[in-house]
Amino acid sequence: MTGRQGAEQGIPGAPESRSAYNFSAGPATLPRPVARRVREEFAAHADDGASIIEISHKNPRFTGVLDSAVALYREVTGLPEDHHVLFVHGGARMQCAAVPLNLMGRSPTRTAGYVVTGLFAQQAQREGARYGTAVTVAGSEATGFDRIPEVTARHCPPDAAFLHLTSNNTVYGTRWSDFPRDCPAPLVADATSDILSRRLDHGRFGIIYAGFQKNLGPSSVALVTVRDDLLGHALPETPRLLDYSVHAASKSLDNTPNTFAVFVLSLTLEWIRDQGGLAVAERTNKAKAALLYEELDRTAFYRPTAHPDHRSVTNIVFRLADESLTGEFLARAQEEGFLGLAGHRLVGGVRASVYNGMPLEGVRALADFLREFARVRG
């Protein structure tokens, strides 16, 4: 059996046959076996003649998919039973407002702490400031967001309703390897760009939220896990569909959810489980990142931007030592089938986003391209 035939049949570890590899920061590449199952099952007709997205969100066929997705998420992540799993519209950006609206009321002074490690952490803090006092507990702006700052209990405001952090910095390419301990306020994490890429102790967090478009499925919806004791504190001005208590009580069915996204998520979670779970995903993702960092560190031709101790595993950000070659590099990469490598518009340079769906073969091919481009133009 050829690698192409193995890949087409969804055999774990079989090489992928691809004309191009999408390294975009998001929406990102779905795992090929998941994409094939979506294609095969999306329009499959049941006895009533309707596909999964043509039926009511309260139809037992869809609620079965929804229940399965929640159960699989709990199984894959080890989510504690006192944490709810919610599916809400608006992606992660909407949760920047939903979190303070739901939690600021826990503080008598409407105070919350924010660790500012990049663009999306800044956006979350600005939204928090609309509903109370958003204190900068720590940050790394002074060093160009190239690292994760130290955060200890002494940094945390004693009256804070929560402490917000962004677990992976998509724009600048840094990642938390450990999280604050012993802070009096519950931890809230925006995990959009590294959700399901590694094992996390969900019990240490009051809330974790993530937009779907990196490792979960289609864009525009977010997954939120929230601890039971954090429900019921929403500010009076909280819109109904931003109130976590409403979503928890209705099992995310107070209004029509993105049924297609939940369907894709259920297939993605099955794929992760069948590959060996998050332990395997984490090991594979570290191996993929190591291939690229090894090549970037091999010569002075490339310059990774993140401090070596704080490098992201999912978003590898770098510059060319001769930045006048960046345009040529990106154009050549596009011609060779490496898509979405341009850095974020605020920082420029190059960014390779390596989420769960990116096969090892794609990363190896990109590493080979990096080596050859440096040989020819170095």
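(ticket continues) Second input and output from the same batch:
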Amino acid sequence: MTATVTVGEFSRLTHLSVKTLHHYHEIGLLAPASVDPSSGYRRYGTTQVETALLIRRLRELRMPLPEVRDLVESTDGVKREETLRTHLERMEKELAHTREVVTSLRELLTPGQPVLDVEYRFIPPFRAYGVQGRVDRDDIGPWCEYAFGKLDAVAGDIKARAGATYSDEFFTEEAGQVVAFLPVAPDQAPADGVELVDLPGGFFAIAVHSGPLTDFDRSYGALGSHVAEHCEVAPGPIRELYVVGPGDDPDPTTYRTEICWPIQRIPALKG
């Protein structure tokens, strides 16, 4: 038997607040069974309880409202399963990221962390396939997937390590020029979807960041402090060389990234 109840009663049935139910009605997600034309009072059918609980569960999983609507309204079981699977995979990635941040925080609060090893190197100028653009800091992950996907598509038998340069503005203004590159031979032919770029040579102070990129800033802080204390900084973007990255191994603990800080010259070593 089907019955209708007031919005307050429906709120108690579903543990959705009246305010939330009004919002869901306004956006067309969960409309009441009837609305009194004179008073505006809403009434819901008891057959809507299951739908309301489904919406509540999906929102507890932080599924965006447009995806909730698609899932609730769809009668295609395969499509509904795909929508849910995609969201759960996204949540699992967020959970893994949260765990990495917590691990990094604990390490940051633990005294006696090892000092970062720094080496000095002269890198000659070289030609590379490149993808470049002005990138917001918050968008660097998706942009790198796009850019290195372009480079992978034209890499062929090239065995060189890919990398990227980051302008000062990328750090200071939270948006700046980024160049993803893959070194090639000086006479390399052009390729579709990428540019041929010439990167200048120079001296660099270099440190290796090992493991996930969650605490990348700690390696930057340690290397930058070393450079400030022992070197003369040279103009030019910071470079990163991806010795082992996401395209090489899905396990973030295996990642190895060389951070290359431009310096004027190799400082005299004190014996």
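Agent notes: The longest strand covers residues 126-136. The chain has a mean pLDDT of 88. Closing as not reproducible unless the customer responds.
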